[in-house]
Every structure is written in C-alpha cells, then in structure tokens.
Amino acid sequence: MESGGTAHGPGPLIVRALGIETSCDETAAALVEADESRIRLLGQKLATRPEESRALGGIVPELTVRQHLELLPEIIQGVLSGERPLEAVGATAGPGLAPALLVGLALGKSLAWARQSSFHAINHLEGHIFSPFVSRGKWPEFPHLALIASGGHTLLVDVPSASQRRMVGGTRDDAAGEAFDKLARMVGLGYPGGPEIERESVRGEAGKIQLPRPMKGSEEGDFSFSGLKNAARLLLEKKPEIAQPGTARAHFCAEVQAAIAECLADRCRLGLRRTGRKLLTVSGGVSANQAVARALEQVAQREGANVLTPVAGWNTDNAAMIAAVTARRHLDGVQSDWQSDVDPRWSVESDQNRT
Ligand code: KG4
Ligand code: ZN
Fold it and tell me: pLDDT tens track of the chain, all 355 residues?
C-alpha cells in the first residue's frame, strides 16, 4: 500500500484502524490497513475466557471483566507497532455484557484521544456481517442476506445496502451455538461444544438416532432450538448409555449436527425466497462447521444464490472484524460522539450510536 500516499498526504486515502473487542469473553485487538479498494490485516491478538469460567462451563461476568482490565492494555500494545500513524480507533459498544463492553469502549476512547484518531463505537453484529468479506480482503457487497450463528446470536438479516439492515428472523430461545454447547454438555463433551460435536460426528451417522428439526418448513422466519434440546434430554433420560463414549454417542452427535444444520439451512431458504437475494453470507462460530456450510451451499444452489463464509479464524469472535468496520467508518468520513455509551441490547437493525 506504500505507493498510494497516506491519509495525510496526496493520493488515495489509506487508513490504519485499530479495533477492540470485549463484548463477551474474548479480549481482543486488531490492526487493519485499508483504502477504498481493499483491506488488509496487519496484526491481531486475542485472549479467551479465563480458565475459571471455562471450568464452570459459562461466563462469570466479574472474571471476564477482570480479564479485560488486566489483558487489554498489553494486547493493544502488542498490535500497535511503534509510533506509526493511527487514523481510527473503534471498540465494540454492543450488543454484549455491559461491564465488559465498558472496558473496551473506555480504553478505546482514551487511546483515540491520545493519538488524535477518530473514534468509533461499533456494533458487534455489524462486525460479523463484515467478516466473510473482509477476511478475503474486500469490502462487503450489497445487497446480500446474512446469517449470523454464534453462541450468543442466531439472526437472519437482509442487508440491502451499507446503511440498511432488516431482520428476517431471530431465535425464539437458544442460539445455534448455544444449542451445540448444551447438547455437547449433555453427553459429557467439553466447551465449546460445536467443535466437539463436529469431531465426534465424524465417527457417527445422522438418522441412526432421530431428533426433531424445530421450525423446519414454517413460513415464519424465526429459529428455535429448545425443542431439539428437550427431545435430546428425554431421549438421554430413557437411554443414558448414549452419553457414554462410543458409537451411540457418535450417532447422537451426527444427528444433532444434522438437525442444527438443516434448521439453519431451511430458514435461509425461506429468507432467500422472501428477499430474492443472490448472495448468502454466514458468520459467527457455527459458520466454522462443515456440515452447516454444506447444508447452506445446497440450499443456496437450489435458490440460485452463492454462499460466502469467513476465512478460517474469522468465524468466531475477533477484533479484526471490528477494526474493519472502524476503517470503513473512517473512510466514509463519519465518527462517533465522545459521549457515546455502550448498548448491551444494540439491535442489528439500529444505527443508533453509529455516527
Ligand atoms: O462467534 P462466537 O465466537 O461467539 C459468540 O458470539 O457467541 O461463537 C462461539 C460459538 C460456540 O457456541 C461454539 O460452540 C460455536 O460457536 N462453534 C461451533 C464450531 N466452532 C465454534 N459450532 C459448530 N461447529 C463448529 N465447528
Ligand atoms: Zn459474536
């Protein structure tokens, strides 16, 4: 990118943007360099949940916030190399855990102030929507339909343009990743459950054990996974031997994976038909699952659409996607207010806090 000049000199505008992510249990920072035609990751660092929380199988807010407080400064230092210009700083302002978000937002504002950079409060979900594109070095294309499937969210969003996002469907109960995590736990597998179930499924076969596909075929756009969880619980009460390591457990995992993949693909089929979009993107931890990716490919092909998934490493929560949205905002000449606050329930549709 040396040839084009700098943000302060003649030639195309180039921005170096730092992104900070502390919405949940990842403490992360990333640095990107971007211009109108492309975006490049210069570096990123990430620490995941404290060991104590992992052992407890869930998030312990105080431990998570302490991790952010202790690790974020050195993580940021680790990705900022020397005194080179830093045009923009962005931090996730929601949705997420309020005290966790506050750590990243406060540090991000201070850094932007000290380095005289623009400051940006970023919506975590918009970061996910960017990730399939920016992980390939390019800016999002519009229009498209975006599936976000993670441990905290399962949303299908119509994205007609850079400034418009409309919900097609959301989950009525558990998120898809949460369903993977809970079902894995029921059969004694570790956290995060998605990768564990994917590994275990390799030795099993879907259909040997039958579990329901909630909402499949419904004309409503929403997702639901509690029926799957309850059916699995009843089955395991009747046949506890399935939870023991062995072939039955592998069949169980393969069936769970197939059920979740089919539910996600079925809602995407409905969304593609409703919106007429020809590009389906998928992001969030569950998008790393190969069975999910295959099911989405099949549905999209039947609807005449293409599928774009993030490059490996960009599926789960990361700060690179936050840095990318930050760079985009800076290139668009907008910035957030210094008074901007966190919004733990910030909707994917809302542009509140955006500029
Ligand atoms: O996007 P993410 O890092 O965090 C949230 O925002 O929640 O997603 C984590 C979730 C976990 O529930 C995890 O089980 C799931 O993504 N996950 C997977 C896979 N890798 C991560 N689910 C299915 N298959 C995978 N390979
Ligand atoms: Zn996320």
Answer: 233 334 444 556 999 999 999 999 899 999 999 999 999 999 999 998 655 555 566 678 888 999 999 999 999 999 997 768 899 999 999 999 999 999 999 999 999 999 999 999 999 999 999 999 999 999 999 999 999 999 999 999 999 999 999 999 999 999 999 999 999 999 999 988 999 999 999 999 999 999 999 999 999 999 999 999 999 999 999 999 999 999 999 999 999 999 999 999 999 999 999 999 999 999 999 999 999 999 999 999 999 999 999 999 999 999 999 999 999 999 999 999 999 999 999 999 986 444 3
Q: Which of 25, 27, 180 to mutate for ligand 1's pocket (most ligand atoms within 8 Å of CB)? A: 180
Based on C-alpha coordinates, what's the Rg of the chain?
A: 21
| CA 39 to ligand 1 centroid distance, Å | 25
Superfamily, domain 2-135+316-350: ATPase, nucleotide binding domain (3.30.420.40)
Q: In the structure encoding, which two tokens stand for residue 257, read together?
A: 């994976």
Q: Which of 54, 148, 316, 318 to mutate to test the pocket of ligand 1 (most atoms within 8 A of CB)?
A: 316
Q: pTM (2 decimals)?
A: 0.93
Ligand 1: nearest atom to the Cα of 128: 1
Domain residue spans in the chain? 2-135+316-350, 144-308
CA angle 213, 260, 208 (to 5 degrees): 70
- CATH code of the region 144-308: 3.30.420.40
Q: What is the largest CA-CA distance in the chain?
A: 72
